[in-house]
Amino acid sequence: MKVLLVYPPIFRVVGLASTPLPIGMLQVGQWLKNEGHQVEALNLEIGGEIRTSSIARMRQAYAETDLPATLADPRAPWRQEMRIKIESFRPDILAFSCATEQMDAAALLVEDAREILPGIRIELGGSHVEPNDWVRRIGREALMLDPALDLLSGQNPPSSFGAVLTSLGCPFDCTFCGSPKRYGRKLVNYPIEQVRSRVMAAKEAGAPYIHLMDDTVTIQKQRAIELADLMAEIGLPWRTQTRVDDLCRNPQLAAYFRDAGCSQLTFGVESGSPNILKATRKKITREQVLQAVDILNDAGVPYTANFMIGFPNETDDDVEQTLDLMDQMRPSRVLAGSVVPYPHTELHDAFPDFTDAARRWPLCQWSPFDPRFLRDDNGGRIQGPSVAALNRFFEYIDCINNHAPTPGTFSTVS
Q: What backbone torsions phi and psi does residue 193 show, to the nearest 5 degrees?
């Protein structure tokens, strides 16, 4: 059979340049190819023009776009690209990989496809949906395969092919994360030679650096050392994620990673409030965050800290505690967004009023970067901190990322 794999747009719809590598979709593509199917892929997220890493600029792009109306425009380039592909390839199966925000675009693409091929079979996968038996079986088997990077050759830029997964699963159970339900809480490492194969394939595809995508790279010290040794051997610069408690437990990893070519580490803090950290089961403390920052600074490793705002039980005082922690950290860079009660997370199920309120918005607005999502008639966050606290939070982050004076404890960020 002929199968067309499609990654629908969302950043592109608001004009933002984005170059995602849908690894899971490409693993499914490899499985289908192994089974003898004719497979092609279409990454419709490629094509936005606003190139920025600024949280403020991303939020502005969302605020300036009427998402439902923009999606509904049949003249949109991404919808035209889909029609052209359907006409030329004439697939038997159209399979989507969708996060929550992409579901509205996928629904419109299904309508467009059925205008051309009324009998086409539709399959949905990705983090939003509950997969059917066919998708679940393929996904389970495909997860052990290397992604078929060739399916997006000529669509994705070479820099995007550096995204590499080295493991599956996560032993933690943060309330805002859907990974435990999707992949389980058992950590399964890919064999180191399979990781080597993936990194070499990325290098051969033209990737100038490697991004080890796992949140769990540093959980097991010996495994972390093996990965660092592999990256040093291959010789490309690389970056990855860590946890602050991993660094506190094994501080020598920071310098080891630096010497192996690691150019940046990213870790989640989420909040500076002990109450919020406890409620989300993040299983870290403020003290551990500051200890990890000292370790990275001593080793000379740049880092990015991730934060979230807008938990349904979060107060303005919780936000102030987060800003106070930022003051003490003086991070190199901050990534942040508003909390979204995504399906398959405990947050989605544990706060039904919060989730019911979220359903007033179309799925395309279920984004951490859409400033209109979950706002009441006065612009405040439903079941969360005030408008003033939200604005202050994002103002802080904008100042930190621009190395500008902040309206807080310290006047400059070094």
A: -70, -30
